[in-house]
Amino acid sequence: MRLLLTTSQGIEDLASAEIRSLLDRIGIPFQVEERPLGVEGRVLAEVGEAFYTDEKGRRRRMSIPTYLNERSRLLHRVILEIASERFEDIGNEEPEAALKRIGDFVSGLPLEMHVKVSESFAVRSFRKGEHKITSVDVAKTVGKAIFDRLSCFGTPKVNLDHPAVIFRAELIGDIFFLGIDTTGDSSLHKRPWRVYDHPAHLKASIANALIELANPDGGPFIDPFCGSGTIPIELALRGYPGRVICLEKYGKHLRGAEMNALAAGVHEGIEFILGDATRLSEYVDRVDFAVSNLPYGLKIGRKSMMPKLYSEFFMELAKVLEKRGVFITTEKRAIETALEENGFKIKHHRLIGHGGLMVHTYVIG
Ligand SMILES: C[S@@+](CC[C@H](N)C(=O)[O-])C[C@H]1O[C@@H](n2cnc3c(N)ncnc32)[C@H](O)[C@@H]1O
User: Which residues line ligand 1 at a C-beta cut-off of 6 Å?
Assistant: First the structure.
């Protein structure tokens, strides 16, 4: 079975390490490839069969997609691959020709081997890159091709709102991909615990990537700009044995973080502090790990405040941080200046796709 796993751009290596560790745990043969066909934000896992013994001692086949959907912290979707194809130069083709190519390809696939004709289906599409066609065009064309193909085997049913089977069709540059989306309509990064929606919240998958980069060992951990609490909550959900602190300047967001933590069942495990990160040493004497997505100041007027805020914050952080910090921000100049001014060394830098931007991520020590 080939599974196309989706995640954020720039964290494919961390997602693939998580998948390897999850698959190792159940002892099945597998191969994992980051960015298959050069597509970012994707990991391909080729997995063998796995079995378990149920309560009556019967040997049962284990569903690997279900296992990954339930356990992964870094993935967005688990898609059963039906076919992947490179359509050279499709970006320059006129809509009619491009859609005919996609339609012909899909109707030639043995789709009847992947779904029961009696099950209702819908196609969800995703398109990225320069094309003369839209994602809606792709969905309609693929939907018609699937319908036509399945019509040879019975009477297919389309149900756009509540389908039993979701086909996912992606056109990314010149790569076309078709699969069955086992995750459903809601991406895994949209956690069920999020009852308070912060306007600039971090995706839970990225929060976990930052936690992986920090690699905390049980020592005191703080998110000094914790907003709705994504990072502390995800850390607490991993059963972190040490202190987890969520510091936030605005009461509305801190109350939201507490509501989220309650919904996640980890409120007890997190200390919530209403306070200003530029006065960090007033709230904590020492932390081993600090992980945060810093305020970006995307709004006009606020951007000019970032260098001062960063400079004051890192001056305070230098007083209390013992081991590692991981910070994500669009403000490259402001953070690099503040880090240098306060004697922090950049141990690792990478770009991560977040909210349509490639955002700078720093591991410091
Ligand atoms: C990018 S958001 C963090 C979002 C958070 N990671 C989440 O997923 O909800 C930055 C947060 O920093 C807070 N903030 C801004 N200035 C602050 C300061 N001086 N001290 C503490 N928090 C501050 C903002 O209110 C905002 O909630």
Answer: 198, 200-202, 225-228, 230-231, 247-250, 253, 276-278, 293, 295
Q: What is the third-level CATH fold of 204-364? A: Rossmann fold (3.40.50)
Q: Could you read off the pLDDT of 12-51 as tens digits, one per residue?
A: 999 999 999 999 999 999 999 999 999 999 999 999 988 8
What is the CATH code of the structural domain delimited by 2-181? 3.30.2130.30
The Å distance, Cα 12 to ligand 1 centre, comes to: 26
Q: Which of 67, 71, 74 is nearest to 14 (CA)?
A: 74
List the chain domain ranges.
Answer: 2-181, 204-364
Q: Which of 65, 135, 77 is nearest to 102 (CA)?
A: 135
Q: Which residue, by CA, sits nearest to atom 5 of ligand 1?
A: 227
Instruction: Please identify, by atom number, the ligand 1 atom nearest to the C-alpha of residue 224.
Output: 21
Helix (H) or strand (E) holding 289: strand 287-293
Is this model's pTM higher than 0.85 or not?
yes
